[in-house]
Amino acid sequence: MDPLQPMDRLQQAYRDLDLSPLVEPEDIERFRIDYGLDVLVRLKREIQASKDDGKFVFTGHRGCGKSTLLKRLAVDLKSQHHVVFFSVADLLELSAITHVNILYAIALQLISSASQLRLNVPDDIVKTILGWNQQLTQTEGQEHKTGVEFQANLLSAVTLKLQQEKVFRDELETTFAKRISELVSKIDRLAATIQSQRKKTVVVIIDDLDKLDVPLAEDIYQKNVKSLFSPAIRIVFTIPVSAIQEPQVMGALNSAGIVRPRTFAVAKFFPWEQRHDPQAEPIAKTLNLFLRILERRIPGDLIDPETAREMVLKSGGVLRELVRLGRECCTEAMVRLEIDPGEATGRIDGEVLALAVRNIRNDFARQMGASLYEILQTVYQEGQPLDSSDLGFVKLLHGLMVLEYENDALWYDVHPIVLDLLKRQQAVS
Question: Which one, of 390, 327, 304, lies nearest residue 10 by Cα?
Fold first, then answer.
């Protein structure tokens, strides 16, 4: 018997349903279920088989599990490579990201990883990357100092400025926009320095570029991909799945040597031909996998089995949507338990799930307009968009209101909770 009271258990489940990806080793150990193993192995083998300057682009719906998979990839590669894994969102505002500050962030993270291992980095590289802002180095009072302590202190100051100050980022952009070749040269020398001392080739994995707004992602990967791909090291980039709907973006990536982005597809509960059949049984392997993922976070005796099944199906096969639904259910169950402790059991049942679905449905509704309902209706009926480059469709795809699935061919469907909106509009039966 679990000694915790129902409210305590719901609070713990709420904490376990953190929307952040699994990147910490202890979280991966507690919650990980092998999912996307085929994608992980393919990406790993392509990296290991590539030339030392290979570039890789990874995509998939937001919340499908890319960040967790990339962290696992970093761990798997560490035995043979010097791996630098970082989230660009931890260093830069997503709305202010450019190819210039992505390259600068790579250089910064290479210096950081070398500093942590107390590797020797040439002073001229440190001066170029960390000492370009004279006001900052003078403020630190370290303009004439060198060595590991200087690197660590100035690295910390530069990173903080980069994260918090727009003026600093603007000055950085002005400084390096016309010095890209110099910046790339320093990155290459940093990698060579690390490799010579560690006897391992460098692999950089950049997470969260897939969270960029589509126009910004298109600007980076279409107009500036040549500069972005200039460093002579292996780099894994992420990109929004909606951005690769744009033929010009794909053309630019193809010209830069990316035959096709590696995609982490959404899990399918039904094959295309049965997607709207109310009598169809979900694919058992996929359903059971998602149920196991849910069980790691919500104990079985805290949720009705049929409710757990329905919650999984309402996720549309997107891991983050399952976690979001579960967390919303915990909130509603806690509210019910506090308001009506005499009647509430503290279990998550169909009534609680209905409230959680309502909340998320309303979140989606706030993003909708009449024209988007028409696109949703077409996607639902045909399994395909009218035009994959249509801005309305791209918005729906980027916002998880439309989900992309893979069989022998791509097909699309409406998020199950958004489908409730269509039915309420009587746009579908």
Answer: 327
